[in-house]
Amino acid sequence: MTDVNFITDPLAWQTQTRPTKTAVITLGTGERLTYAALDDLASRVAAWLISRLGDPAGQRIAFLGRNSVELLVLALGCERVGAIFVPLNWRLAAPELAALIADCTPVLVVADERFAAAAPGALSGADLLAQIRHRAPAVRRPLDPHRPAILLYTSGTTGQPKGVIVTAANAHAAALNFSLVGEVGLDAVTFSDLPMFHTIGLIAVARTTLMQGGTLVLTDRFTPPRTLAALADASLGITHYFAVPVMIELLEKEPTFAPSVLSRLHAVFVGGAPLVPALIGRFLGYGVALVNGYGMSEAGTVMHMPIDRDAVRANPGSVGFLAPHVEVRLMSDRHDVVDGVTGEIWLRGPSVTPGYWNRPTETAAAFVDGWYRTGDLARHETNGQYRIVDRLKDMYVSGGENVYPAEVERVLSSHPDVADAAVIGAPDPHWGEVGVAFIVPRAGTAFDRDKLTAHVSTRLARYKCPTRYIEAAAIPRSASGKILKPALRDRLSQGEHP
Predict the structure, then answer these.
(1) Contact 319, 386 (CB under 8 A)
(2) How far apart are the first and last CA of the chain?
(3) CATH number of the domain at 2-386, out of 3.40.50.970, 3.20.20.80, 2.160.10.10, 3.40.50.12780?
(4) Comparing C-alpha atoms, which of 167, 171, 50, 164 is closest to residue 107?
(5) What is the pLDDT of residue 400?
(6) Where are the alpha helices (DSSP H) in 320-373?
(7) For position 372, what pLDDT does the model report?
(8) What predicted TM-score, i.e. pTM, was given to this entire model?
(9) Computed over its alpha carbons, how large is the radius of gyration of the chain?
């Protein structure tokens, strides 16, 4: 029974051990909550849910809003009564949110006032805190660790978002994996601008920090000046910072950017999208190692670079070694590939999801003999590290040869005139498919197809080189930084031409 209690409620264990230690700091207001105070709020939310719903076990409780104490305590309270917490992506349009709500059918929605119009009838976060304030804390009880605890909706890069089921045991194993590869311990002060409707913000950062007895710095959004000020604030003492590549680039462009601020941190973690070598090289020049990793809603942290500047310098673009509590196979035509050969990543382990909410057909298709098929392509290198190649669905075939757009995008992004790039395959009567590149020019430079053609032709095989280039104001990306390829395909289908 002890194992069940620990898996389902690590906060309770830390509260017994260090009740007066600061668990959460809210950036902006400066509010600080000790472990005892956070634990008390979570228990009051649990009691409130019981009084409102009777038996909340298995019922969905949704939250629509930015990172906040309200979001955090609602998630913790749900976990204590067996309810399923559903953090909704506030960046979605109202019809998209309506589709998610219809899919998960929550019995209760809590929403920030600024998003209330997208969730009619929702309770506000302020009302939630007011209603629990005089509620007696609920008595904790053991729960099945393999019950669904969280629904994380995927970003929809390949179509309609799916609700990834995360059990309490999945969340615990994912947090344990990140605590080890990210070196998150008792002295860690973690800070993330990433939204907590994704696995990075909710599990890798928040859950890991609280499980390990560290301090979590909460912020409601990414604002470069405020982020840099927080990282430089000695009274906060931030040790771990988390971002996606575009955020790192925006920090670098900020007038108040000081490399020494980042170089003092234990680690700067970057994920969600490929890291281009030029960005890695610039920050290594500042004395800052951008530590890359690979993970997903379906499994949490899977692979991670060591927190070591020499390792990052020697392996630019690598996602490092396998996390300790997950198994991996690289497969092609359902056979294991050898080192150096590209294969699809298959996963198995305690952090891997049991499937998708209300999607039995897609769940069945995602698993083979107990292994989860990620749809991502990677190579295992001779030094034991892994390198992500591309999405299986994004790969296209030109003249009988496989082309991985991510490889072409890295080459394009290394051109000094390119701020961002994305490549998709398009039908071609002669070659079957050819590459179409969307290019965002760097500020102050001109869009020049001939320069780009010359750049890639000396670095890639001819069949990998795009045949068309389209100037773009921006590349559409998800909140986690992934390129939204369907949006680019839509642009082509609607008649956009170079």
Answers:
(1) yes
(2) 63
(3) 3.40.50.12780
(4) 50
(5) 73
(6) 360-366
(7) 97
(8) 0.85
(9) 23
